Amino acid sequence: MNQEVTEFIESNPLQWQVEISHGLRQMVHQAIPDAAERIQYKKPHFLKNGKYAAVISPSKKAVSFTIFNTAELTLPEDKFEGPPERKTIKIGEGQAVDYEWLGTLLKQASEGL
Prior knowledge:
single chain, 113 residues
């Protein structure tokens, strides 16, 4: 794990976002065991074979999680937004996160990377 990513997550002043970001990070590494991670564009990015697989992006009211290479997936439109090649889900404070489901989607999306 990349120390810069750890520091980025830990520096968030909102504890609920720290917890969600840690959960998402752990889920990424379970779905893509050989994922590389780095800070790029001031956000944690996760790569498989040098290609973007996912990104965590905290904001004031949510933690956004973007999955790349999603054109072949069928995702619920009421939960995700974005163009066909990448989809983002926004997770708000107090919202339950189905890490297993997100991990399955990420694993499917990253199979072609």
